[in-house]
């Protein structure tokens, strides 16, 4: 049975998958917009720092107010409605909840939410990929030890890329490269929340209408989010990452199989089997027609003459050698697709992407010269952006993971473009997030 049929069966049996959502911002709202249209699920509760804002977002996506009038989680279960409050612990500890969707976008808080959910034997769909980037391998291990499933969120690009990689490998194709698209020029790494909308291609009015967070969107633009997502893909698939950060080769969809080849064969890859991000802009800023900016892709190799002939016979677009072919999705629908993860986790016991090792890391890198006493403001802010590095190189540098570069003081000068180390900052070592990261570094020490 496919997932939709399984959901319909749960609906018919009166045994819906019971869900708790933590965080009802933009991403969460997109998921909420689909919940009333999905059979076999019951969103029992929403926990948000601002219940009033959460209810406003529910109204924005079309929920009727009477659906959120339950005074408690128990009342919501009995009435088939949704409780909205600010107590995330009560939500993850409630015995009726099957799946927790972590959707805060706050990496340090997300680690707390995930660990608590595991402790109470709840499956977790983690939308906050920033947390997965700095400790996903250990979160996956702790979920497995608890007997639950931890998963990346379908709709977000990492899970979609993992899906394409799985397709390729299941078909017997070697994966040469996989990744996403992005609008990229090198100076975007210096962008701040004040400059983001002009670079991104939205007006301030459009951003306000959509309730878009400039810091969050700047984390996409400045290269932090592409690095974070590439890290999640690498750790989930075993694909390697570039030795000194993403290259962002410009290419149209048609040209992806040309550029995602090894350098020895005319492409940009250090070797076969890597993660990369394709830019939708030429080096001079010109927009590339038919780009992959909002999409995902995987490049595979035909290892035999017979397979290469099949590519040719069925008009598959390849590089000139006929060996390399790229399959792609040009768009992703973000929170509108999270239901796939919820259903897969709850009904099949399968994640839609999960870390299987520690191959990659995202290291906080200075956007400008930083002085002692300054406070780092994390991804998308004014002080640092995230650089993708192999985990081994990050460990050798003592690299400060971007996900922990929030609200920490700089203790010695750091030059623009320099990747920060643990020694450059005064860390709060009391958080569970720091402890999990520290435990992971020791576990995977080479």
Describe this structure as you would to a colleague.
InterPro entries: Asp/hSer_DH_NAD-bd, DRL_cat, NAD(P)-bd_dom_sf, SAF. GO terms for molecular function: NADP binding; oxidoreductase activity. This protein is an alpha/beta fold. Helices cover 37% and strands 17% of the residues. The protein has three domains: 168 residues, Rossmann fold; 136 residues, no CATH class; 81 residues, Alpha-Beta Complex (Type Iii Antifreeze Protein Isoform Hplc 12), CATH 3.90.1210. The protein is built from 17 helices and 15 strands. The strands form four sheets. The chain has a six-stranded parallel sheet, sandwiched between helices. It has a four-stranded mixed sheet with strand order 8-7-9-10. α7 links the parallel β5 and β6. α1 packs across α15 and α7 packs parallel to α12. The longest helix is centred in the first third of the chain and has 18 residues. It is globular.
């Amino acid at each position: 049975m496919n997932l939709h049929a399984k959901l319909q069966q749960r609906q018919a049996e009166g045994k819906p998958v019971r869900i708790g959502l933590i965080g009802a911002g933009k991403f969460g709202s997109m998921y909420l917009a689909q919940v009333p249209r999905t059979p076999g699920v019951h969103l029992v509760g929403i926990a948000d720092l601002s219940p009033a804002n959460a209810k406003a977002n529910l109204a924005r996506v079309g929920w009727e107010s009477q659906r959120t009038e339950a005074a408690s989680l128990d009342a919501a279960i009995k009435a088939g409605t949704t409780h909205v409050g600010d107590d995330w612990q009560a939500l993850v500890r409630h015995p009726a909840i099957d799946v927790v969707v972590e959707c805060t976008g706050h990496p340090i808080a997300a680690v707390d939410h995930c660990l608590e959910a595991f402790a109470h034997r709840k499956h977790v769909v983690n939308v906050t990929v920033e947390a997965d980037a700095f400790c996903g391998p250990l979160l996956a291990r702790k979920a497995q030890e608890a007997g639950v499933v931890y998963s990346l969120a379908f709709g977000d690009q990492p899970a979609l890329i993992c899906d394409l990689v799985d397709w390729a490998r299941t078909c017997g194709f070697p994966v040469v490269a996989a990744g996403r698209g992005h609008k990229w020029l090198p100076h975007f790494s210096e962008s701040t929340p004040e400059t983001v909308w002009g670079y991104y291609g939205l007006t301030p009015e459009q951003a306000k209408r959509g309730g878009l967070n400039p810091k969050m969107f700047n984390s996409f633009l400045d290269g932090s989010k592409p690095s974070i997502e590439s890290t999640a893909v690498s750790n989930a698939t075993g694909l390697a990452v570039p030795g000194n950060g993403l290259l962002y080769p410009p290419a149209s969809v048609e040209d992806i199989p040309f550029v995602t080849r090894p350098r020895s064969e005319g492409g940009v890859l250090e070797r076969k089997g890597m993660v990369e991000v394709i830019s939708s802009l030429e080096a001079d800023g010109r927009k590339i027609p038919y780009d992959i900016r909002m999409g995902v892709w995987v490049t595979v190799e035909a290892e035999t003459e017979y397979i290469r002939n099949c590519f040719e016979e069925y008009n598959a677009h390849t590089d000139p050698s006929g060996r390399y072919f790229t399959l792609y999705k040009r768009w992703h629908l973000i929170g509108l697709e999270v239901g796939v993860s919820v259903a897969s986790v709850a009904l099949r016991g399968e994640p839609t992407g999960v870390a299987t090792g520690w191959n990659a890391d995202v290291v906080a890198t200075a956007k400008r010269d930083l002085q002692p006493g300054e406070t780092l403001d994390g991804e998308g802010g004014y002080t640092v952006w995230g650089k993708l590095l192999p985990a081994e190189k990050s460990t050798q540098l003592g690299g400060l993971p971007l996900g922990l570069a929030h609200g920490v003081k700089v203790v010695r000068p750091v030059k623009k473009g320099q990747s920060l180390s643990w020694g450059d900052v005064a860390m709060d070592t009391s958080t569970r997030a720091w402890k999990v990261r520290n435990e992971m570094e020791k576990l995977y020490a080479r």
